[in-house]
Amino acid sequence: MRTAPRRLGLLGGITWHSTLEYERLLHEGVAATLPGSSADLLIRHYEWSAVERAQAEGDWDGLAARFGDDARRLADGGAEAILICANTMHLVADQVAEAAGVPVIHIVDAVAAAARAAGLDRVALLGTGFTMRMPFYRERLAAAGVEALVPSEPRLTEVHALIYERLARGIVDDAGRALMRTATEELIGAGAQGVIAGCTEIPMVMTAEDVEVPYLDALALHAEAAVRFALAD
């Protein structure tokens, strides 16, 4: 058994609300196996509005370069793996891994493994408009044998707006909870056997207690995968 965890590098602040939850889960996960210990973390915490603006402009190459440079600095500081603390930004995960020279612990792999373990082959995917519209997330799930269903319009745009206009700013209310329940119920009606909280802010308005099907919290599953890496011999 390891006596100290491996160092992890976090690309966070996307948003800060969920990054704090990552830190909590990583520290608790390490302490559960190594009592008295905590996670060994290096964190590059972004100013959210700059990332949001680049996403809206479609500057994914610029974001890939920025995240890659920062991941390399974390690796130079001793990080043995990188966590991108957002689902959407895994669009540039391959570029980040190449720039860093250390593994990126991929959030979709953690979600796919949990779906397969639960016997699910068709799930609802709720996240930002980028995550739901662009193929990178659904294709990686499909490669693991998991089909992802996303909302139709206008529901898809409503979920995206909830994330960017309210949850990213820490605004949590009953209207947001009701929207997530409605979107989930519609996809379950279309054949989804479970639901992926595919944005790290979604647990602010929807948890496992709110749905009657298996609930896959991408943030929590990602953190669990990172703890396993940190503690592995």
Layout of helices and strands:
Blueprint: E1 7-12, H1 16-33, E2 40-45, H2 48-56, H3 60-76, E3 81-84, H4 93-100, H5 107-117, E4 122-126, H6 129-133, H7 135-143, E5 147-149, H8 155-165, H9 174-189, E6 194-197, E7 215-217, H10 218-231
Parallel strand pairs: 1-2, 1-3, 4-5, 4-6, 6-7
Structure, explained:
With 233 residues, this protein is an alpha/beta fold. The protein is built from 10 helices and 7 strands. It is globular, with a radius of gyration of 17 Å. It starts with 6 loop residues before the first strand and ends with a helix.
Key features of this structure:
233 residues; alpha/beta; four-stranded parallel beta sheet; three-stranded parallel beta sheet; 10 helices; 7 strands; 13% strand; globular
Sum this structure up briefly:
By secondary structure, this protein is α/β, with parallel strands linked by helices. The protein contains ten helices and seven strands. The strands form two sheets. The protein has a four-stranded parallel beta sheet with strand order 5-4-6-7, with helices on both faces.
